[in-house]
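#structure-requests
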Amino acid sequence: MFLAILSGAVIALALVAQADHFGPAFISIAIFMLSLVLIVGVFTVARLMSLNRDDFRWVLAMNRLRHAYLQLHPELSSHFTTSPNDDFAGVLQTLGIETSGRDALGSAFHGLQTLPGMLTVIVASVAGAIGGLVAVGFGAPSVVVLLAGIALFIAVEGFMFIWGRRAVRGLDPTLAPRFPTPR
């Protein structure tokens, strides 16, 4: 839905740009429309992060069930390909996210490969466009317009990255590990 709204806004802005030749009316309408797109994007990313937290909880619960199976029948361990541990490392292993070894670099970029991560980049780009448009609206030179766009992109990307990290780290206390990964 967010991408449909973004696409529609870009098409509408193209029509306004044709009529106004990127004049003051275009800048005003573009800032307003892109601000709405930005808000929808932030709420979309928030919902996706909520869904990812739910997925994390379900994987953690499955790991606990797997641990119980292995306590009852340890001989079945060779049949399980995912972790029986309910700590963060065990959940990441079950999800197929490597935290060490040759695939660790891939896991460092895992956040960008997720739907919330990719939409965060798009949302930050919309914010950067708004920053550039505001600078244009004030008659700033091209360098300032570019720097304003880059600064807002980096600020929103950073904010949403920190928000996403806190969302993953701030789990319900009932999800505290009971069967941590042996060290």
